[in-house]
Q: What sequence folds into this?
């Protein structure tokens, strides 16, 4: 985490994170370096979906197949 190594948050974190999770949560995360579980990240809308570790590949493949079938051919390429 940025706080863990003592550097300023980069990659747009100070701009985009507050827009996604709100100012108070964003600043808490940025200043403390708190690490969230997938479920916690989903609760604050930081991620769209959280799945158990053992289901990650299965869920990712379902999403990829859905995208393949429902997207324009040039939008999804291998």
A:
């Amino acid at each position: 985490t940025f706080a863990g190594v003592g550097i300023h948050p980069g990659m747009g974190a100070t701009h985009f994170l507050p827009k996604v999770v709100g100012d108070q949560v964003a600043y808490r995360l940025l200043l403390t370096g708190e690490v969230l579980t997938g479920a916690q990240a989903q609760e604050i809308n930081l991620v769209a979906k959280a799945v158990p570790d053992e289901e990650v590949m299965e869920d990712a493949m379902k999403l990829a197949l859905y995208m393949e079938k429902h997207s324009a051919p040039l939008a999804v390429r291998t």
Observations:
- Helices lie at 2-5, 13-21, 23-32, 38-43, 56-70.
- The chain has a mean pLDDT of 89.
- The longest helix spans residues 56-70.
- The CA atoms of residues 5 and 33 lie 9 Å apart.
